[in-house]
């Protein structure tokens, strides 16, 4: 019995020990699972917090470098700062919300939920600022302010709704997130803001800075992708960090102040100047300015071996100008922008007075240099309708200033702008007329004093308006030459003359050749000879029927290219005349050197013959010398029978002028020939 009882006692005791061990193992397992759960949550949240902290550090570094540099004061700069601060706020709130959720047992539930809602509001606020930033280029400042006001009201209402709606917190395993109506409202509003931003960058993209459009689209894309990833994997908190990446993109692509600075001078660069002018016009503010250029500046020493030293001294001069935004818009060009015309005038007087003195006076073993720069003065920006037009004015007048060495100061005021606009209208008229084939050729007959017949004519270009009226050549020829359109226009005239010769065979009326003008610009074209010979081949024209008129100025400016073209065309069979002799630096050496066989006296030279005794001797001597060289002479501008008789007595070979006929259309010219050359 005792042995049995002892056995039972031992068995019961063993069973109890086994149950105790099982309970302990079960408790260990439960404790381990709970620990692993805690560890997983802790590791995941540590990773999320670390990601947000990294984003925050990046933004702090950007803020540090941003604050170190001067900014020009653009509206977009203010918006970028708001976006930067909003993203920083969003990251901080994201970090705090994660901590509060994980440790929610230690904090009041109301506080945790309120903080989470603040984070949601910061997300919406970042989207709001991004939309405004995207539209800043596309809208004018007045419109953007109205847009901000309307959007701000909507955003405030949405913010109240988000904050009022309930929010729920989930913290289980690796998942730590919020959900509920408040979150849904936030997601909907954020998506709407992102889509609106993408919409405006597309609809109004042409009015935006291309780099800003590209940067914003990338930012919004990153945001959408990160939101999608976070939606599918709630463990990953990416949205806040994506906002930080967007700020990084904007900073390096657009808003880095150092990228707006010219490194040599410390002034703002040309790209920033364009943005600033656009901002001033969009804000409705007036603007005045000075463009100071040392390109091709007149100097007492053409070599200017110490130009870098001069530029350094000029930079210091510009640095002393008060009340101004300073820009280095080209290698040797400074642009100063003021808030008023009075400030501009004071600065101009200061700068121009300094240029009255020599430069490099303080350098040893260096000859001082005097400089005459070029100035563009803009007393008021109100002369232009918008920033693009003003930039166009600056480019045009800057080029005009460079092309007119004797004119060192050009004022962009109402008068000059009106002329520029008239020029633009005329330019458009020329282009449209060429497209519509409203370019015509008029002929002015040329009389031979030997045969007493009209043996030639000068072909003159005319442009007909859409209403049928004729535009005087003095209005469109200078513009065509300035823009280079004279080359195409000249080709068109030459082709029409060849067509006229083919269709009407003017030789049957006694015409021996047709004179066609070449402008200085046409003489610069190396393809002139080939182009004209190809046209003659096309219309099967006898080259001997063509006489090309070159001006004295062309023979001076483009001598080598002109001679090459002349020799090629002469070999083809074409002859040449020297037009406007006596209107400029008339020199018989030009006649000797140039392969021409006709010299045309300018109208003023012809008229002077009848008004001055000295002019009589000059014209007589010139005629004798030219004819002594085996060349023929044409006198232009003859208007009376007496003038005709006098010039015939003098021995002039050909007479041209209103006494016989003005330039007339093809049909009238043919009738004229039939009547006069019987």
Question: How would you concisely characterize the structure shown here?
Answer:
The chain is of the alpha/beta class and 678 residues long.
Description:
The protein is built from 23 helices and 17 strands. An eight-stranded mixed barrel has the order 9-10-12-13-14-15-16-17, surrounded by six helices. Strands 3-5-6-4-7-8 form a six-stranded mixed β-sheet. A two-stranded antiparallel sheet has the order 1-2. Strand 14, helix 19 and strand 15 form a beta-alpha-beta unit. It is elongated, with a radius of gyration of 42 Å. The termini are far apart. 34% of the residues are buried.
CATH homologous superfamily classification of the largest domain: EAL domain
Poorly predicted residue ranges: 1-42
Radius of gyration from the alpha-carbon trace, in angstroms: 42 Å
The name of the CATH topology of the largest domain is TIM Barrel
**Average predicted local confidence, pLDDT:** 82
Counting DSSP H or I runs of 4 or more residues, the number of helices is 23
| Mass-distribution shape | elongated
Biggest sheet: strand arrangement: 9-10-12-13-14-15-16-17
Roughly what percent helix? 55-70%
- Count of strand segments: 17
Structural class: alpha/beta
The CA-CA distance between the termini, in Å, is: 169 Å
- The biggest beta sheet, please? 8 strands, mixed, barrel
CATH class of the largest domain: Alpha Beta
């Amino acid at each position: 019995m005792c042995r049995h009882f002892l056995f039972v006692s031992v068995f019961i005791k063993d069973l109890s020990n086994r149950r105790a061990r099982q309970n302990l193992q079960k408790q260990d397992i439960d404790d381990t699972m709970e620990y692993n759960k805690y560890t997983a949550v802790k590791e995941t949240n540590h990773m999320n917090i670390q990601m947000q902290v990294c984003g925050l550090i990046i933004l702090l570094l950007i803020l540090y470098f941003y604050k170190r540099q001067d900014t020009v004061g653009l509206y977009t700069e203010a918006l970028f700062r708001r976006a930067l601060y909003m993203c920083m706020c969003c990251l901080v709130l994201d970090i705090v919300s994660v901590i509060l959720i994980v440790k929610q047992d230690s904090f009041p539930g109301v506080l945790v939920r309120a903080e989470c809602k603040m984070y949601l509001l910061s997300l919406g606020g970042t989207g709001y600022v991004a939309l405004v930033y995207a539209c800043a280029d596309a809208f004018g400042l007045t419109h953007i302010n109205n847009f901000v006001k309307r959007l701000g009201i909507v955003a405030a209402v949405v913010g109240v709704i988000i904050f009022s709606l309930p929010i729920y917190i989930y913290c289980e395993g690796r998942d730590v997130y919020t959900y509920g109506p408040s979150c849904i409202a936030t997601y909907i509003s954020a998506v709407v803001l992102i889509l609106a931003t993408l919409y405006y960058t597309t609809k109004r993209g042409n009015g935006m800075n291309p780099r800003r459009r590209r940067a914003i689209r990338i930012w919004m894309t990153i945001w959408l992708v990160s939101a999608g990833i976070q939606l599918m994997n709630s463990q990953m908190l990416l949205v806040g960090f994506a906002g930080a990446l967007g700020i990084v993109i904007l900073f390096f692509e657009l808003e880095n102040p150092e990228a707006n600075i010219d490194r040599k001078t410390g002034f703002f660069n040309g790209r920033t100047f364009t943005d600033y002018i656009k901002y001033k016009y969009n804000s409705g503010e007036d603007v005045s300015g000075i463009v100071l250029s040392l390109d091709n500046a007149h100097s007492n020493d053409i070599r200017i071996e110490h130009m870098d030293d001069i530029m350094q001294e000029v930079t210091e001069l510009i640095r002393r100008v008060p009340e101004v935004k300073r820009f280095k818009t080209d290698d040797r060009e400074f642009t100063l922008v003021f808030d008023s015309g009075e400030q501009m005038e004071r600065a101009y007087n200061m700068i121009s007075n300094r240029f009255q003195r020599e430069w490099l006076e303080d350098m040893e073993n260096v000859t001082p240099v005097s400089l005459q720069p070029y100035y563009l003065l803009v007393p008021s920006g109100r002369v232009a309708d918008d920033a693009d037009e003003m930039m166009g004015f600056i480019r045009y007048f800057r080029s005009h200033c460079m092309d007119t060495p004797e004119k060192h100061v050009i004022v962009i005021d109402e008068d000059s702008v009106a002329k520029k606009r008239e020029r633009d209208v005329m330019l458009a008229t020329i282009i449209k007329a060429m497209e519509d084939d409203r370019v015509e050729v008029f002929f002015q007959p040329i009389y031979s004093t030997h045969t007493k017949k009209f043996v030639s004519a000068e072909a003159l270009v005319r442009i007909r308006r859409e209403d049928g009226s004729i535009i005087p050549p003095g209005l469109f020829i200078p513009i065509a030459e300035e823009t280079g359109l004279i080359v195409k226009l000249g080709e068109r005239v030459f082709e029409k003359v060849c067509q006229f010769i083919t269709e009407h065979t003017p030789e049957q009326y006694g015409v021996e050749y047709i004179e066609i003008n070449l402008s200085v610009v046409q003489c610069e074209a190396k393809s002139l000879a080939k182009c004209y010979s190809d046209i003659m081949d096309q219309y099967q024209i006898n080259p001997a029927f063509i006489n090309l008129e070159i001006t004295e100025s062309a023979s001076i400016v483009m001598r080598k290219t002109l001679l090459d073209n002349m020799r090629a065309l002469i070999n083809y069979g074409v002859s040449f005349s020297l037009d406007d002799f006596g209107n400029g630096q008339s020199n018989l050496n030009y006649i000797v050197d140039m392969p021409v066989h006709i010299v045309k006296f300018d109208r003023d030279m012809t008229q002077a013959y009848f008004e001055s005794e000295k002019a009589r001797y000059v014209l007589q001597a010139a005629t004798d010398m030219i004819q002594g060289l085996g060349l023929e002479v044409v006198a232009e501008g003859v208007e009376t029978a007496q003038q005709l008789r006098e010039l015939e007595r003098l021995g002039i070979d050909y007479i041209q002028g209103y006494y016989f006929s003005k330039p007339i259309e093809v049909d009238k010219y043919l009738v004229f020939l039939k009547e006069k050359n019987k």
